[in-house]
Amino acid sequence: MSALKDLYDIIKEVKNLAEQYQNQEIAEKVIQIQEKFFDIREEVEEVKDENRELKETINQMSYDKELEKDLVLDEQGFYIRKSEKEQGKVVLYCAACWNNNHKLMPLMGGVKTTRPQCCSCHTVYKLKDDRNIGRIASDFW
Ligand SMILES: [Zn+2]
Fold it and tell me: How far is the CA of 122 from the centre of ligand 1 (A)?
């Protein structure tokens, strides 16, 4: 932050002038200014950190919002992505993980078993029957 650096340089110059002219009153004021300068510099750093964290949160929220538009909750309890379905991909996602933590976790086993399981929270989903697997894999999707 160059304005802060410039200000610090000016404070040092005034400090040197106070020493040069042996003005005790100004020297003491300069020390007070310098202390306040350090306080302000610390506050600026805190505000910058907070701002960076808020930007990250906003980015994450917009990403989640976009992702959410792509999700469809299947009647059997898991999510699928519209965009993947359009590309002919069949990936089942854990509804618990998305609803609780906004993490999109694929189900292990996916369409290959009637009991796909979340690779993160280990929730087991029960597909209705074997015919559903066929439907998911071909006609239905
Ligand atoms: Zn899960």
Answer: 6
- Kindly state the percentage of the chain with pLDDT values over 90: 72
* 125 and 97 belong to one structural domain: yes
Amino acid at site 48: K
Distance (Å) from CA 95 to ligand 1 centroid: 7
> Tell me: the pLDDT tens digits for 56-69?
999 999 999 999 99
Domain that holds residue 36: 2-67
Query: Cα(112) to centroid of ligand 1, in Å?
Result: 18
Instruction: Give per-residue pLDDT as tens, 72-114.
Output: 999 889 999 999 989 988 889 999 999 999 999 999 886 667 7
Torsion angle (degrees, nearest 10) of CA 94, 99, 103, 106 = 10
> Are residues 47 and 95 both part of a single domain?
no
